[in-house]
Amino acid sequence: MASKKFAIAKQLGGKRVITNKGEEIGRLSDMLIEEKSGKIDALLIEPNRESKLARNLATHDKLAIVPYKSVFAVSDVIVVDESLLA
What we know:
About 15% of the residues lie in helices and about 40% in strands. By secondary structure, it is an alpha+beta fold. It has a single domain, classed as Roll (SH3 type barrels). A hairpin with a 2-residue loop joins strand 4 (about 60) and strand 5. Mean pLDDT is about 85; it is low at about 1-5.
């Protein structure tokens, strides 16, 4: 089961992350995962330097932190609810 989770995570790497208002805030670089439960806590994205919203997000090792609770769609892109980022 764990190897399946990692395979899915690898497939998501590099996907564009956009808000529900269409602003591209970056590209997925990594994820913060709760060790005991295996649940995703947050996405770590390479911020789009042109995005004011991305520049205002908290960071971890120069990557912007996007709370996983803000994610509401994953397809060709990852869509996040902008109102949950502030």
